[in-house]
Amino acid sequence: MIREIWQKYKKSEFTTVALLNTIGIVVRLVTALCSAKLLALFVGASGMAYMGNLRNMLASMEAFTSFGFANGIVQYVASHREDKALIERFINVLLRFMLGVLLVVSLLILLFRNELNHYLFEEAFSMPSLFICLGFAFPLQVLNGIWVAFLTGLSQFKKVIYLNVIGNISGLLITFYLVYNQGLNGALLAMVISPAVLFFISLYWVKNELKLQWQPFDFSLIKPLFSYAIMALFSAVVSPLCLLWVRKLLMKHTGVELAGLWEGIQRISSIYMLFITTLAFTYFLPKLAQVKDYTEKKAVIRLYFKGVLPLFAMGLLVVYFTRSWMIPLIFDHSFSPMVDLLHWQLVGDFIKGAGLIYGLLFYTERLVWPYLICETLFFSCFYGFTYFLIPYFNIEAATLGHTLAYIIYSCVLVVYFSWYFSRSESKNSLT
How far is the first Cα of the chain from the last one, in angstroms, to the nearest whole number? Predict the structure, then answer.
């Protein structure tokens, strides 16, 4: 019997994706450790704070330029997987629309490069050439995100994970070369160049799945994306901006060095959160999009809580108990105060991971207004708690505010979706 259970477990699609995802995260972890150590040695805490500003700006720009279409593309493609002709018409129309948008955005980046430089780096240093490079590389970064969304919707899980692995390795090599030769300027340049490299690989894989050819422009094909775009765009723009505002708040009240410590915490958080977020968006989002019955949706949610969340909790415990030697290993001894600051971030990230599956339901059920209300609640709580707690907890106010905001956010999600599923099942039983 045990052998039968093992064989069934071994052959399941979820197990295959989870194992590949774990391998991808291990590669990401190793490359991130090497990258963080390199940056700590050559850039320092203050340099990492400026890198955080650029990272958040790039995330907001990508979300704004792509209209947050990624999750909508996954939902649309997963729902129409059997109709390849429709998907091919859809991708061709979307590609023409995006090329027009990206041309305008690239020109704006080139025209306002000095203003962007001053906003991010203030009087610390000037690097307008960074934004000239960004004007040419940024469109490739956005298009790569769109290709990845198509591959995810087509359930090409392995290719998506392979792409992430290639991106991590190539990103480390580019970062090493540029940081070693140019220091902070090279680190900033690597952040701009690295994502664009993957465009050519993802394009090759998409062309193997679908035909990219010129077709009449039919806006009605991409019109459904805009309901998803409102949700994704709001979160993807406001989230980096909120982090940017919190970082500026810390820089003002605690100094650049301590703000750099908080940025180091965010880097560690982004590494281990990749395990659960990648698995959620690569595997669970298409699954929730494919199933229509609410009983099946609940089964997918149960799989998430039973198969993913316990492993994630174990990983967070490992991070907590190894933090005293892990942080100096990743960065250097100047970042050692992070040891006493990490616990609240871990608690908040576990609660965030637990509520992530409910966040996917906003997209699959196209619940625009509930999503906007819940996200506004979270970001307001995060910034508000940080603002009011800084006089009492100093830099720890940001991690404590993060946890308190996610406690409130997750409670709201559980209450809302319990009511939503109950109401939807009652409607279905009446019909």
Answer: 42
